[in-house]
Amino acid sequence: MKIDPKTFVKDYQLSVCIQCGMCTGGCPVKFRSPLNMRRLVRETFFTGNPSVLFKRPELWACTTCSTCSLRCPAGVKNVELIMGIRNFLAEKGEIPSTIRDALENTLLHGNPWGRFRDRRADWAKDLGVKILGEETSNTLLYVGCAPSYDPRVQNVSTALVKIFQRAELDFGILGKKESCCGNEIRRMGEQTLFKKLAKDNSALFKKSGIKRIITISPHCYNAFKNEYPDMGISVQHYTQAIADLIDQGKIKMSKALDIPATYHDPCFLGKQNLIFDEPRKILSSIPGLNFIEMDRSKERSLCCEGGGGRMWGEGGTEGARNGEIRIKEAISLGGKVMATACPFCLLTLEDATKTSGLTDQIVVKDITELITEAMEAE
Amino acid sequence: MGKKIGVYICHCGTNIAGTVDCSELGRFAATLPEVSVSRDYRYLCSDPGQDLIKKDIRELSIDRVVVAACSPRMHETTFRNAISSEGLNPYFLNIANIREQCSWVHKDRERATEKAKHIVQAAVARVTHHESLEARRVEIKPSVLVVGAGIAGIQAALTIANEGTKVSLIEKAPYIGGHMAQLDKTFPTLDCASCIFTPKTVEVARNKNIELFVYSEVINVKGYVGNFVVTIKKHPTHVDPIRCTGCGDCVGACLLKKGVPSEFEERMAMRRAIYIPFPQAVPLKAVIDRESCLFLSRGKCKKTCVDACKAGAIDFDQKEEVIEKEVGSIIIATGYDPFDPHLLPQYGYGVYENIITGLQFERLSSPSGPTQGEILLKDGTVPKSIAFLHCIGSRDENAKLHCSRVCCMASMKQAHLAKEKTGAEIYEFYIDINAFGKGYQEFYKRVREEGIYFIRGKGSEIFKRDGRLVVEAEDTLLGTPVEIPVDMAVLGTGLTPHRDAEKVAQVFGISQSADGFFMEAHPKLRPVSTNVDGIFLAGCCQGPKDIPDTVAQASAAAAEAISLVAQGQVEVEATTSSIDPEICAGCKLCIEVCPYSAIEFLNLKGISVVNEALCKGCGACTAVCPSKAARQKHFTQDQVLAEVEGMIT
Amino acid sequence: MNFEPIVLGFLCQQSGDLCADFAGMEQKTYAPNFLPIKLPCLGGLDTIYLLKAYFLGSDGVLVLGCPEGHCKHKKGNEIAQRRVQAFQSLLEVLGIGKDRLDLALIHSSEISRLIKMIDGFIERVAKLGPSPLIQSNLTSKKREASEGLYWLEQFKKCDHCYQCKEVCPICFCKRCYIGSLPNFAIAWLAHVMERCTGCGRCEDACPQGIRLFDIIQLLRQKFLTLGPLFSQKEGKKEEKIIQI
């Protein structure tokens, strides 16, 4: 589909902007890059030649956390404007090379890192997991690209499988047939590729006869729940599924962890999809876990800068990343563990512990890892 | 007998003529059956326009008139008066609405004219079946009910009482004064609110024409203009108001030492279960709050308050009272609720200390408040920097769309007071400065001269860093994002409709506008009337406004109420129903559907009969009657069927 | 040339008509197919008005009144709702289509919703095409879907002999007002359908053999969900039975 800058004003409601500055005021990268959402909206509205405006590296600094869109009092669609601009640039090929590579890799290999499709389910080969197509199930565990290929995040996938198996939850994975959900692809500007992924994935899901999808990443959750055409399949993030299992008494955690832990609300789970209670419910049921609420939590959680294609590009940002601010905040509250529920947050926050030299003071873990630590060994 | 119908098409300047071809419409109307004359004219409601019609009645013996013009809500009365001045019964008039429901809502000239033809044809067909009717006149009871005793209700009540008419003034809280009683100084003159206000509240208590009901609510309203019957429920305060001297000994003795958050102090201080609202309260009587009183809610208390009361005023057996009052008109002045900032979690309200709302700041600044007028942080120290955030909950797609009008001035006034009292660095985060009134721009300049920083950028978030509150925003004039550490943040919360507004609207039968405030009859020309005759609005319940505008509107509503009383009688539409005893078979379906119990069954004759004094002309009986014995005047079956036929063919 | 339907509107004075006036004052635009008629309250919406509208050529009728709990005359909107639902069943069985009649309850301040309702309804009716009731020769392409129009074809046989009315036990009107409508059988059916006792005499009496009893049974099934029309229960009160 052709995205035409001339229709940006109408498509993204730019004319209702009152220039109040709430968008720039709440932007997580406002001090790290020259990106100024408010000014961008006004310039796009008034310019006769939008394409000149858009040749700015800072447009790639946006993490699509959506704080601007969610808070805008006038109803301007800020984040969609950024995605529209990126789409326009992508069609002309004027995008950073790392982003371009990520997009091409997804087209060719089904994941932005360009790893081989055949190896997508290697992490699960000894775990006794059902592969849909060979066997059937009502529930699909949609793994995602990072949890399939990244060694650090593969721990999360393994932990989650263990939890589900112990809880005797029937599920299957797609294995090699799984392709990228497309959430980041759309945010990096490739509307056409996203539509193709959505179409192919929806058809695949429907064909496998599943009634429910559980995702590991909140990004995949967001894509299936909000941006895919209606598939008639219910979509859950794993924290919702596990919270249900805890309610049903199917998760037995008997080892006390004795550790103070904070929780970082991922943007795509928390402020965008309003899932705040389930992760907290899980953490408070883990024995011996002393839960400390961070100051900037829930709707005010500070974006880790992992979304919006930032895993594949810096967008010209300078200085220390937000992840470091989060780690320091957690440490100052006495936390020894920073829990999270998103693969990108996991990676960026862990990275931050390393770049700030604080690996001995705090460790970053996914909620699934904490649960399995508290479960008895079989 | 053939009728002589006169059809008059109004151009209404270009309002109708701009879209509908009035001359063609006039020519078309002339071809309709029984139409004697058809004219079109630029402004029919003007004197020469009305004279056209009158002349035709005189000279051409016109006996039915169709006026194709604006909505009957505008000029039905005007034209009815015109034709009755020529001796023609006013109900022989029919108005065809070709403006609000035709020329103003359709753009295609040809199709709008086509539709106008249908409407006129329908009106002509209907008017041939019109009958001569007499409007009923009803007495207006010489008393007024004022609901709500804030500044609006008080002003209205005093104006009416001083004119000599009796007023029943109802207030839900145990004291009168509303939100104005909570304010410290008012803008732009910095008058002390209590000082200008207390004389009025005292006068209310003293005025012989005002009967004051505090701690009371209106639970039911029946009747119509001139003859409302309202049911008032007086909640028990468990304190005898005649014996209580307001000494306050009971308060100190109350065993609920922990207390509950005080509503008057906007939860900045605690109060006991038995309490006196504030030192200048009118009436100055103690009140027991049922829900927090240990004895009333749990049955367990030594009742030390009773022992402490030397006047023996406490009465745990006091019951609620239900009182009925008959009044001629009603003024609704139920006020507003401040926006609840919990709904916008990015500001950390309720999470961090020292983030307060505008009204909470007023309590801090007020000499009778919890800090005796000092601006202090929760830990008792004086803040060195304060931020005021504008537009919290107003002009916001995620909260309320409307502008709350007064908060810019309120924030600036509070900034001035804070600067005066603490000398702190003050920041005002704003989008626009709404300083519209008399002396307001001058006040804005004064505040700027005092060195208060105005940052044009709406506060986006408040978080804590290194133990200090930080306000995040963008200085849009400089184009740079800012994070400003402050000790205290005051959220300029907007004015929203009262949380009970929907219930009040239902009880009184009035409508709410899209923003939830009560709807006025016409936004420009009838700002204090509602769609219910005899019910008027005053103050913030109709929309946010400052004190001068509130007082002005209250006086206007009082004037409307007094004018009704002065007229003594009012005309009520003659559209009542009657039942033809020859046709009625006594099936009683009409009795079942009548909402006003206006139909009774005569056992001896076996038929139903309508009590026209009670009938409100809703038409339910005529629609349900299987044999059409029931018939509503001015909406008979023949009339409506003729209209349907004229409209479609 | 697109088909432009004729849509009649019944608006109650407190909400529908008031809201339409407000829409005019704000200079909003909607389709000119909408022809408004004002009633003091929806409780006064007579079935015969609906019949007349459809018989004269209305392709659709939209009724607009006050929302739940807000009717100035207490329950006029509820009464109208029931009446509209009963009439919709009749329209459905006759194959005219129940989508040609709709009732919407709106606040007088809900101007944008009013516009949406009107435009949406007109669009819907336009898609349905001209009302089969007026296409008296049934020359439209709906002929093929003849099962839907079976009952309509039955009623076309009526020749106004009034025998059904004469034998009906509950037809007691001293002055029959529905004789003026083009098709007596349909009008009479709409008049008695909610009160029918199911005796079946009408069908026996009809010289044209219109299956009146069968269609009334069909309709009565649908009316079961509406609840009773009378609040009185059937049968004699216990204490009134005289023991012999």
Keywords:
heterotrimer, A: alpha/beta, four-stranded parallel β-sheet, 17 helices, B: 649 residues, alpha/beta, five-stranded parallel β-sheet, 34 strands, 29% helix
Could you explain how this protein is built, in words?
The complex is a heterotrimer of chains A (378), B (649) and C (244). With 378 residues, chain A is an alpha/beta fold. Helices cover 43% and strands 9% of the residues of chain A. In chain A, strand 6 (259-263), helix 14 and strand 7 (289-292) form a beta-alpha-beta unit. In chain B, the strands form twelve sheets. A five-stranded parallel beta sheet of chain B has the order 10-7-6-18-29. In chain B, strands 20-27-21-22-23 form a five-stranded parallel beta sheet. Chain B has a four-stranded parallel beta sheet with strand order 2-1-3-4, sandwiched between helices. With 244 residues, chain C is an alpha/beta fold. Chain C has a four-stranded parallel beta sheet, sandwiched between helices. In chain C, helix 1 crosses helix 4 and helix 3 (76-94) packs across helix 9. Mean pLDDT of chain C is 82; it is low at 137-145. At the B-C interface, helix 4, helix 5, helix 16, helix 17 and helix 18 of B face helix 1, strand 2, helix 2 and helix 3 of C.
Class based on secondary structure composition and strand pairing of chain A:
alpha/beta
Query: What value does the average pLDDT of chain C take?
Result: 82
Overall helicity of chain A: 40-55%
Radius of gyration of chain A: 21 Å
Radius of gyration based on Cα positions of chain C: 20 Å
Kindly state the mean pLDDT of chain A as a whole number? Answer: 92
Question: What's the shape of chain A?
Answer: globular
| SSE run of chain C | EHEHEHEHHHHHH
Low-confidence stretches of chain A: none
Give the neighbour order of strands across the main sheet of chain A: 7-6-8-9
Report the strand count of chain A. 9
State the strand order across the main sheet of chain C. Answer: 2-1-3-4
Q: DSSP helix count of chain A?
A: 17
Overall SS class of chain C: alpha/beta
